[in-house]
Amino acid sequence: MSTIFQRIIDREIPADIVYEDHLCLAFRDVAPQAPVHVLVIPKQEIRSVDAIKQGDAALLGHLWVVIGQIARDLGVADSGYRVVTNCGKLGGQSVDHLHFHILGGRQLDWPPG
């Protein structure tokens, strides 16, 4: 069964897309935890951080470049932002598809959880 993120990639579910290229997709979170809350996902299915393989290194590097570009485009790069990825049930991962949260636009507390 496809994850909700795969269904967004396949355009079966609508999303407020802020960035897309041949490797990844970024869209606004439907339950934002900050004024800026965007999810960045690879189009390649990778279940979690634990499932990343050596061959995924170039893709992961690309995702980090895209994350920085999105932060600049959305105006949070100068003031600061947080990038979060959750791994596993106890780590708070709710969708089994690797994804990065970009959070910004307000003071973010520490520790986060």
Could you characterize the architecture of this molecule?
- The structure is a single chain.
- With 113 residues, the chain is of the alpha+beta class.
- The protein has a single domain, classed as HIT family, subunit A, CATH 3.30.428.
- It is 20% helix and 22% strand.
- It contains two helices and five strands.
- The chain has helices at residues 4-9, 57-73; strands spanning 17-20, 24-28, 36-42, 81-84, 100-104.
- The chain has a five-stranded antiparallel beta sheet with strand order 1-2-3-5-4, covered by helices on one side.
- It is globular and about 35 Å long.
Give the averaged pLDDT, no decimals. 96
Q: Compute the number of helices.
A: 2
Beta-strand fraction estimate: 15-25%
Order of helices and strands: HEEEHEE
Sheet with the most strands: spatial strand order: 1-2-3-5-4
Structural class: alpha+beta
> Mind telling me the CATH superfamily name?
HIT-like
Observed structural traits:
113 residues, alpha+beta, HIT family, subunit A, five-stranded antiparallel beta sheet, 20% helix, globular, HIT-like, HIT-like protein, EC 3.-.-.-, HIT-like_sf, hydrolase
Summarize this entry quickly.
This protein is of the alpha+beta class. It is 20% helix and 22% strand. The N and C termini lie far apart (30 Å).
